[in-house]
Amino acid sequence: MIQTDPVLPPPWIGQPYSIKRHGVSITNCDSEPVQTPGCVQAHGAMLVLRPSDLTILQASENTDRLLGHPAEALLNKPVHTAVGADGEASLRAFLANEPTDRNPIYVFTLPARNDVPPLDVTAHTIDGVAVVEFEATGRTKAGEPDYYTLVKKTVARLQTANTLREFCDLTADDFRTLTGLDRVMVYKFHADGHGEVFAESKRPDLSPWLGLHYPPEDIPKPAREVFKMVWIRPTPDVSGELAELVPLANPDTGRPLTMTYCALRGASVMYTEYLKNMKVTAALTLAIRSGGELWGFINGHHYDGPKFV
Q1: Which of 54, 120, 227, 273 falls between 20 and 30 A from 104, CA-CA?
Q2: Quick one: which of 5, 39, 35, 7 has its CA closest to 22?
Q3: pTM of this prediction?
Q4: For residues 302 and 283, what is the distance between their CA atoms, to the nearest angstrom?
Q5: What angle (nearest 5°) sits at the alpha carbon of residue 24, between those of residues 23 and 25?
């Protein structure tokens, strides 16, 4: 009789999941709770607020570095402790007047201080809380291209495409121009779930991947489900650290934070290891949907250090 090892439940069952604490392996990646990772990408910080009084319920563990206060010192405090009175007034007006449900929108920019760069502040609401993200994007006004003109030119070019392949080729070329990424692919799913690099624009010295096919397991089911709800997934620093939420569960509800719509949502270690194996240092993924179903992706890769778009 052949004995097989027992199938053990994932180590996070019965407790809030954290990428940093629990990670994931190839054997259980299809059950990873990617929508509640418990961590943010540490180039930014996060606060979770009770909307009624803007009290801080959860904070990422790196707020000391980016917001000037340790996470534990911010808990149960009004949000002006972290963003000042003017910032709190802006957030209050924003949450009262904007369509924030599952809809992150830019609110304001915290000015630079000491060695902390300016932080772009976005906010949205979900499951009865307000999620506020602070992201050091590394962007500067000097030297940035005229994005309006570039997008206008791209739309005009796409309208001239006569075939799907021509349309996708133009998409890859212009998306690479817009972002400055080293490689951009249009990745198409086939009926059996496997993927194909259908179009590609790349730096001349890179090996071509056009026409390569990948098995369905290349993109686990939980990740595909997320991309039926969100349009864009930035990973500006594949080797960047993760910052865990403190506490992991919302103290008002006992539930983990749904981070589906967060730009800072921590990336699965399976995903970042996969990118590192390909020498990718930054990535940007956009969903392509048709009839509510995932048709494919626009995948952007960078190979020369972090890349903020």
Answers
A1: 273
A2: 39
A3: 0.86
A4: 6
A5: 140
CB 170 within 8 A of CB 157: yes
Read off the pLDDT of residues 115-130 as tens digits, 9 standing for 90 and up: 888 999 999 999 999 9
Q: What is the mean pLDDT of residues 36-60?
A: 96
Distance of alpha carbon 109 from alpha carbon 87, whole angstroms: 9
